Amino acid sequence: MTQRYTPLAIFLHWCTALAVLGLLGMGWVMVNARPGSPEQFTLFQWHKSTGLTVLAITIVRLLWRWTHRPPVLPSTMLAWERSVAEGTHKLLYGLLLVIPVTGWAIVSSAPFHIPTMLFGQILVPHLSLLAESANKAQWFSLSKALHLGGGLALLGLLVGHSGAAFRHHFVQKDDVLIRMLPRFFRHGDQ
Fold it and tell me: Which of 108, 112, 118, 120 is most buried, taking the most CB atoms under 10 A from its CB?
């Protein structure tokens, strides 16, 4: 019998995955949109709202994972594979926290003073330490570099994470991928 993640863990995982894919796509489109255009402004607002949502979901995921142990890795995995899997998960969670915070730091230290409205409804305050800093330009540059670098690192980790899941399913033929799939995607698994 397949050991599964809890339904909430599965739901939060796939919400995060979809949101992150959307963020990566929005990020690429918005920085290549005509500067100052209404389309660019709208994409930035959606990007910020979705990023803050990912931050909130990640905090919930970490709390859930802290109180609910994930399924045990297959006994067929070698020690180095276990280390890579654990390290990758830690890096993914770290980036899912750091990238939204650096995005928030960009907005807070930007010279534009554009407010963030969470999905057009709730005003999200700037990080006052950065908004009121005498070194706003340096914070802005550093935050942008960390945000972009983090986004690229996340993209690389996602490719590796997905590739490893597919390797487990199609080459190793174990249950690593299956146990994270919603019930309606699993066949013959009770």
Answer: 108
